[in-house]
Design brief:
By secondary structure, this protein is α/β, with parallel strands linked by helices. It has one domain: Response regulator (Rossmann fold), CATH 3.40.50. Helices cover 41% and strands 21% of the residues. It contains six helices and five strands. It has a five-stranded parallel sheet, sandwiched between helices. Helix 2 packs parallel to helix 3. The radius of gyration is 13 Å and the shape is globular.
């Protein structure tokens, strides 16, 4: 199954792990990594992701420059013809239940995946949300 995915996380290690897990589970997938939510947002807004759409976004919450909540606030102001092309999942290691609860309040967030991403978690999310 060929999928288009974006991983947004300031941790290069977490991005690398997510990319390898995705490519292991879905070899035909294209994965774009962003260590900065602002550059990811700008690419999505400007249609410069270089991905076939629709695409899945895995978004960390705690990041410098633009955190995941700020990304979601800006993203949800984009026109529907853009936001309809993406499926967002929070990918987080936070233990703060308030952050997770807050993340779930955004209309564009489908779910939450706890770090580290694994093949099983990925398959579960894709099956549950009929992605791919």
């Amino acid at each position: 199954m060929a999928l288009s995915l974006i991983v947004i996380d300031e941790s290069q290690l977490d991005c690398f792990i997510a990319q390898k897990i995705i490519q292991f589970a879905y070899a035909d997938s294209t994965v774009k990594l962003h260590n900065n939510a602002l550059t990811a947002f700008e690419a999505i807004r400007d249609g410069n992701t270089g991905l076939a759409l629709p695409a899945v976004i895995f978004l960390d919450l705690q990041m410098p420059i633009m955190n995941g909540f700020e990304f979601l606030e800006a993203y949800e102001r984009l026109p529907d013809e853009i936001t309809d092309q993406y499926r967002i999942f929070i990918l987080s290691s936070t233990l703060n239940k308030n952050d997770i609860s807050r993340g779930r309040t955004y209309r564009t967030v489908l779910g939450v995946v706890e770090k580290p991403l694994t093949k099983e978690k990925l398959e579960d999310v894709f099956h549950k949300y009929s992605i791919g």
